[in-house]
Amino acid sequence: MTKQVQQLDRVIIRFAGDSGDGMQLTGDRFTQETAAFGNDLSTLPNFPAEIRAPAGTLPGVSSFQLHFADHDILTPGDAPNVLVAMNPAALKANLGDLPRGADLIVNTDEFTKRNLAKVGYSENPVEDDSLAEYRVHALPLTSMTVTALTDFDISKKDAERAKNMFALGLLSWLYHRPTEGTIAFLERKFAKKPEIMKANIAAFQAGWSYGETTEAFSTQYEIKPAEHEPGLYRNITGNLALAYGLVAAGVQSGLPIFLGSYPITPASDILHEISKHKKFGVRTFQAEDEIAAVGAALGASFGGSLGVTTTSGPGIALKSETIGLGVATELPLLVIDVQRAGPSTGLPTKTEQADLMQAMYGRNGEAPVPVIAPQSPSDCFDAALEAARIAVKYRTPVILLSDGYLANGSEPWRLPDVAALPEIEPGFAAPSQDEFRPFERDPETLARPWAIPGTAGLEHRIGGLEKADGSGNISYDPANHDKMTRLRQAKIDGIANDVAPLAVDDPSGKARVLVLGWGGTFGAISAAVRRVRADGQHVAQAHLRHLNPFPANLPEVLRSYDKVVVPEINLGQLALLLRGRLLIDVIGYNQVRGLPFKAEELQGVIQDVIDSE
């Protein structure tokens, strides 16, 4: 049968099912093949916090959304063009996001009376008119998979589990995705279970063949590769990019990397990945708790390594005393906070950017630390290098604020020229004939010497008690404490002169409204700004990487616009800092739903502000 091939410039697909249906694996494989094909892409994994939520229930729904295109895109997309719903719960949880006319592929085998009742369906929506506004493809995916695997020596349960591979094969056919990578992946994944391996490959190929032969799909879709700068690319998540950035920081500084960490969602993948790179002088320590993890990392920095600790918001709370100790001892320390929705345990697998005030002020006493934030999954690599540069040069803990959306989301990453990566000079103290003064500061950076313990002539006191300026002796003198407090603050403030000025994207030069963001909101803000400009409006955009200290030109930038809009996935933390520090009354837009912003909603917000001018 000859199928029609329709060209599209982009598409958004969402795979949704029970948390045991393998939707994350399915989405990841589709993503990897899409990256290999050369499309630009952005992903949004969304899964329950429970290891195994109750089967067939709304809280147990797991989904993976992929936006891919033949041009540069910035977000995982606002609404899917295609929804694959493996059960009634997946349909009900995601149907509200589906626009009229979208394709809906439904696994009818799971639409039993019991499963329908679990999520409040009194009637089967596939059989009544409630889905009439969508293009519904009702397919018995489970039974078709089992039928395709009758010749394999596996249990019926194992055969049913392969239904995600059948669905992946069907979608791979529908959107002209390569297949070789997925087959090679299955061969590796199930190398020790050859019959399961063969069955999954057969299910994948059966899904492809079904699309090729069935009359249910008369059209294939083709999205051509996007135009990219020449270079070698790979698909990368934020956590993976952070891990690579830390390894690169070790190489560029010549320092051994010591990662002291306690597993916590959504930061654990950094520990998993970096533990694989011992050949680069990386050491990892999975501690018994968050406090031990950061204590070991700070101790490693005292010993001449670059100490790193990874965590999420609850872990930052536990690490705060030791971060304060790092401020007092003035040692380099990287603290990576992959933010998640709170408070307390909150929504562990959902994204938020509500730890900014904790990063700024969540320690006793005056304990300033630099705070930086990456803007995209691939930017996590560069942010890690920048955090390491600041920590080493200024002898200070640095907090890097990633978030769940960046950590788990992915995009194409052009591999950098390793020779062009910035050098990071540790500048260890060297013995001399003069008496060693451990708190004698560099006049340019105000950083104190970094003296390796055990070096003859560099013996000095260390600890959290206040030190005398210069000598480092324990001091309870009020004037000295005031001086040391101001010196530590001045050291951090001075970093503003060592970072790039805030860049403003204002192509027409006619904008009177500026949209200012930070962290993982970059993609949604940029996409919204594009839409507003496409409608003929003028709007400027800027995005902060350095949150403490702010870039030196920030006040000038903000005061050059009539109105400044600050979208944040919190209740207005950056807005509060801007009002308090710069006395500029910005306009906050705030949502805390555990989800990234949609471009359409931000477009409306920006347009409303422009209209109010």
SSE layout:
Elements: E1 4-7, E2 10-18, H1 23-37, E3 40-46, E4 61-69, E5 82-85, H2 88-94, E6 103-107, H3 113-118, E7 135-139, H4 141-148, H5 156-161, H6 163-174, H7 180-189, H8 194-213, E8 219-222, E9 233-237, H9 238-253, E10 257-261, H10 268-274, E11 282-286, H11 290-302, E12 306-311, H12 313-329, E13 333-339, H13 356-361, E14 371-372, H14 379-394, E15 397-403, H15 404-408, E16 410-414, H16 478-493, E17 504-505, E18 513-518, H17 522-534, E19 540-544, E20 546-548, H18 554-559, E21 563-568, H19 573-582, E22 587-590, H20 599-611
Helix pairs in contact: 1-6, 6-8, 7-8, 9-10, 9-14, 11-12, 17-20
Protein described:
By secondary structure, this protein is α/β, with parallel strands linked by helices. The protein is 36% helix and 19% strand. It has 20 helices and 22 strands. The chain has a seven-stranded mixed sheet with strand order 11-10-12-13-15-14-20, with helices on both faces. Strand 6 (103-107), helix 3 and strand 7 form a beta-alpha-beta unit. Helix 6 packs parallel to helix 8 and helix 11 (290-302) packs parallel to helix 12 (313-329). The protein is globular and about 85 Å long. The termini are far apart. 49% of the residues are buried.
